[in-house]
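*Target chain*
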Amino acid sequence: MGYTVKTPDYTHLGATDFEHVYEPAEDTFLLIDSLEVHAEDLIAMKPTVCVEVGCGPGLAITALGMMLQDHEIAADLHATDINTKALQAASQTAARNGVALHTHQCDLVSDLTSLAGTVDILLFNPPYVVTPSTEVDDQGCLQAAWAGGKDGREVLDRLLPLLPDLLSAKGRFYLLALKENVLPDTERDLYQALPGFSAATVKERRAGPERLRVICYKRQ
């Protein structure tokens, strides 16, 4: 049976919003499309807690929430971002599409300690562009949405060690990554980055010069 994951309506956001909040682009839609690839499994697992880290305008977590609601699955949805304007946009996106969303202004998952061991689905479209470390921003500026520092991994590498304690026994982590982030055949191979988890590519896409992929991690 095929399942559809709808792209949320975000016509309430305009050019002024996107001066402060990451504008949805090919990476956003690839993450949503990857949820559709796994939709049957995600519906069967009946997740109860779902999180998007660094949510920006909130399209991915809203799309997931819409799919779950369409199948009468009640899940608590959470979104984090250090940018207050992003959280405002995410709240508006969720409300416009009939989804209830809890927002948290924090660095990565620092405000989610109460959810330890309960998160069934975690989504992250991190700042993945390879830049000088000096361009990595933690003050909620728009640059924070894309500047990833060395190997495009500086923000992601801070999150990875936190995930085993945050994810549930059946938890899944969906990560948007750039080819340059993967570092195959090295000790920092992205597919080996979470001990105790298996990792596989869900979907890939070329967007201009960028070769994007979504990787899904599951406990072994």
Summary: The beta strands are 49-53, 76-81, 102-105, 119-124, 167-178, 197-207, 210-219. The chain is about 25% helix and 25% strand.
